[in-house]
């Protein structure tokens, strides 16, 4: 089997495999769906192609592969996986595979939303999605400017019930490195007493509405 696979040209073999994989996952895409992006680090042992030392939270210092996966949310159906060396774990290395997966879909089967964590909230990727008119929703890192923006929203009224105890409010924000302003949505809810893991208090000076939050989450989305 290995000898037979070696005789197949890589580009032609990959195109053939991608076509059949796409056919196997196509039927559920007729319904509205969300595309999730995820990166998994797989530690490696022995000598393997692409085994490079990089970010490895479970086995620091051990070579690894970075698996960039593109999945159908809810079903967790995998649309594609890019296997990269262990030092290519960042969102910029996931971007080519993500755009490739989107470009391969006909308009009627494209996702209603592309969703990812704060690593994907970077200007090059958001611009690429905006050029394709593809809606997206990414978390933002709680930098000083983001915290300042959250604080300014906390001083304002007009928060909207977002369900399950959450309130939401949106605004516009231009972070360093962004070429234009983008819509930012902040969610808040009252949390449990301070001291539990994952909970913190966000204090806003001049505001009488002090919320103990389980999470203050900022996300960027296409207008």
What's a quick, concise take on this entry?
It contains 5 helices and 11 strands; from the N terminus they run ααβββαβαβαββββββ. The chain has helices at 2-6, 10-25, 91-103, 123-131, 144-154, and strands spanning 34-43, 64-72, 77-85, 113-116, 136-139, 160-163, 166-173, 182-188, 200-202, 211-213, 217-221.
Annotated CATH topology of the largest domain: Nucleotidyltransferase, domain 5
Largest sheet: 9 strands, mixed
The run of helices and strands is: HHEEEHEHEHEEEEEE
Strand order of the largest sheet: 3-2-1-4-5-11-8-7-6
CATH architecture of the largest domain: 2-Layer Sandwich
Beta content? 25-35%
CATH class of the largest domain, named Alpha Beta
Task: Give the domain tally.
Answer: 2
Helix amount: 10-25%
Q: Structural class, from secondary structure content?
A: alpha+beta
What key phrases describe this protein's structure?
alpha+beta, 2 domains, 11 strands, 5 helices, nine-stranded mixed sheet, Nucleotidyltransferase, domain 5, 223 residues, two-stranded antiparallel ribbon, globular, single chain
Descriptive overview:
By secondary structure, the protein is α+β, with helices and mostly antiparallel strands. The protein has 2 domains: 35-139, Ribonuclease H-like superfamily/Ribonuclease H (Nucleotidyltransferase, domain 5, 2-Layer Sandwich), CATH 3.30.420; 144-221, no CATH class. It is 24% helix and 30% strand. The protein has a 9-stranded mixed β-sheet. Strands 9-10 form a two-stranded antiparallel ribbon. Strand 4 (113-116), helix 4 and strand 5 form a beta-alpha-beta unit. The longest helix has 16 residues, at 10-25. The N and C termini lie far apart (51 Å). Mean pLDDT is 81; it is low at 197-215.
């Amino acid at each position: 089997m290995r000898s037979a696979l070696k005789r197949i040209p890589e580009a032609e073999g990959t195109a053939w495999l991608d076509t059949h994989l796409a056919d196997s996952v196509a039927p559920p895409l007729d319904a509205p769906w969300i595309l999730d992006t995820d990166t998994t680090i797989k530690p490696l042992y022995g000598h393997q192609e692409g085994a490079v030392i990089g970010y490895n939270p479970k086995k620091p210092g051990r070579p690894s592969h970075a698996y960039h996966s593109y999945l159908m949310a809810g079903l967790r159906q995998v649309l594609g996986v890019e296997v990269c060396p262990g030092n290519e774990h960042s969102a910029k290395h996931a971007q080519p595979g993500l755009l490739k997966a989107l470009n391969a879909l006909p308009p009627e089967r494209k996702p209603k939303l592309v969703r990812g964590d704060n690593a994907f909230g970077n200007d090059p990727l958001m611009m690429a999605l905006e050029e394709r008119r593809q809606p997206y929703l990414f978390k933002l890192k709680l930098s000083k400017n983001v915290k300042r923006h959250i604080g300014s929203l906390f001083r304002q009224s007009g928060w909207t019930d977002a369900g399950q105890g959450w309130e939401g409010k949106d605004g516009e924000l231009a972070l360093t490195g962004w070429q234009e302003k983008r819509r930012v949505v902040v969610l808040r809810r009252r949390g449990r007493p301070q001291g539990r893991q994952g909970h913190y208090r966000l204090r806003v000076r001049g505001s009488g509405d002090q919320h103990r939050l389980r999470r203050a989450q900022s996300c960027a989305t296409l207008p």
